[in-house]
Amino acid sequence: MHVVLAGGGTAGHIEPALALADALRRQDPTVGITALGTEKGLETRLVPERGYELGLIPAVPLPRKPTPELITVPGRLRGTIKAAEQILERTKADCVVGFGGYVALPGYLAAKRLGVPIIVHEANARPGLANKIGSRYAKFVAVSTPDSKLRGARYVGIPLRRTIATLDRAAVRPEARAAFGLDPNLPTLLVSGGSQGARRLNEVIQAAVPALQRAGIQVLHAVGPKNELPHVDNMPGMPPYVPVPYVDRMDLAYAAADMMLCRAGAMTVAELSAVGLPAAFVPLPIGNGEQRLNAQPLVNAGGGLLVDDAQLTPDWVQSSVLPVLADPHRLYEMSRAASEFGRRDADELLVGMVYEAIAQRNK
């Protein structure tokens, strides 16, 4: 069996694809896996690091919304569809699983031409253009939110790294707090704006830290590798404020924390709900509004707070986040609500869809 994954460009597309690849290999170590990608995407590093083959195709960026530029896409796609076809033929692909983005669309169209079964996975509450098109040709569509508008979709969640999907936060907490130099017993706020950081979140939390410390709250702050680390002057006896450029063990960061202040990317929302970590979500103010839609179901379930980027201030942190961290019962209830909403088995459910799609083709 050989499965081709199409989800390059950003970590939000690549990580679920790699989680599925890992799950397929656990089920059958002999399965062949090839990930489609371009020379400029993160996949050029992430896919080989995880031990999978990368098949390169030309990059054809897609407009996020219907525009006059959309008319030119078919012509520009011809070469990249042909390159994707050649990879499918060379690998004798049994199935193509796409995760959206500009790598996915040529994968879908090549698979349609060759009669290879297509599975679409949509991580965001608002589907992107590639998956909207791909879902027309796919018999199997998996989504991360129960109220998806994609036709015939199955709610499975987002495939997660095993270190996240199997995390027992309470069991790992002592090790995690020691790893970051945090107090083992104090309420802990984790702050991160994603892999690159978010200047807005950084500025607000730095201004709010003194008030949090005075209230007995310690802070672990991933500022982003391109942002300057703030000066730290922890007074003796005060809770620690620990800024770091980047966290490469998010499982430990989640285990160390009691609550998180973050953006609302689909992967972040899925990971936090899976591990049962309450969060204050600050959706990115640009784009098509998908981050608010990503977070809203979890917030509605009682597992988080939601604040507009423009309304995020040090005063809001003090009035809305601090009271949660200071209330163990409320933290417990929010954590339980997040856990009940979360899905830890999306990778296994998607593996089942792969086998189902291939079995239907072989009938």
Automatic annotation (TrEMBL):
Binding sites annotated in the UniProt record for UDP-N-acetyl-alpha-D-glucosamine: 10-12, 124, 161, 195, 291
Named from the GO MF annotations, one term is: undecaprenyldiphospho-muramoylpentapeptide beta-N-acetylglucosaminyltransferase activity
Question: What pathway, per the record?
Answer: Cell wall biogenesis; peptidoglycan biosynthesis
Report membrane topology.
Peripheral membrane protein
Q: Could you name the domain of life of the organism this protein comes from?
A: Bacteria
A cellular component term (GO) from this record?
plasma membrane
Q: Which UniProt keywords apply?
A: Cell cycle, Cell division, Cell membrane, Cell shape, Cell wall biogenesis/degradation, Glycosyltransferase, Membrane, Peptidoglycan synthesis, Transferase
Its EC number(s)? 2.4.1.227
Q: Which GO terms describe its biological process?
A: carbohydrate metabolic process; cell division; cell wall organization; peptidoglycan biosynthetic process; regulation of cell shape
Q: Using the record's annotation, list all stretches that form the Glycosyl transferase family 28 C-terminal domain.
A: 188-349
Enzyme kind, highest EC tier = transferase
Q: Where is the Glycosyltransferase family 28 N-terminal domain?
A: 3-142
The coiled-coil regions, if any, are none
Quick one: where is this thing mainly located?
A: membrane
Task: Supply the InterPro entries for this chain.
Answer: GlcNAc_MurG (IPR006009), Glyco_trans_28_C (IPR007235), GlycoTrans_28_N (IPR004276)
Q: Which reaction does it catalyse?
A: di-trans,octa-cis-undecaprenyl diphospho-N-acetyl-alpha-D-muramoyl-L-alanyl-D-glutamyl-meso-2,6-diaminopimeloyl-D-alanyl-D-alanine + UDP-N-acetyl-alpha-D-glucosamine = di-trans,octa-cis-undecaprenyl diphospho-[N-acetyl-alpha-D-glucosaminyl-(1->4)]-N-acetyl-alpha-D-muramoyl-L-alanyl-D-glutamyl-meso-2,6-diaminopimeloyl-D-alanyl-D-alanine + UDP + H(+)
Q: Does the keyword Cell cycle apply?
A: yes
Cell compartment(s), UniProt? Cell membrane
Indicate the family of this protein: Belongs to the glycosyltransferase 28 family. MurG subfamily.
For this protein, the record's HAMAP family field holds: MurG (MF_00033)
- What is the documented function of this protein? Cell wall formation. Catalyzes the transfer of a GlcNAc subunit on undecaprenyl-pyrophosphoryl-MurNAc-pentapeptide (lipid intermediate I) to form undecaprenyl-pyrophosphoryl-MurNAc-(pentapeptide)GlcNAc (lipid intermediate II).
Query: Which NCBIfam families does this UniProt record tie to the protein?
Result: murG
Quote the protein name from its UniProt record.
Answer: UDP-N-acetylglucosamine--N-acetylmuramyl-(pentapeptide) pyrophosphoryl-undecaprenol N-acetylglucosamine transferase
Instruction: Give the classification, highest ranks.
Output: Bacteria, Bacillati, Actinomycetota, Actinomycetes, Kitasatosporales
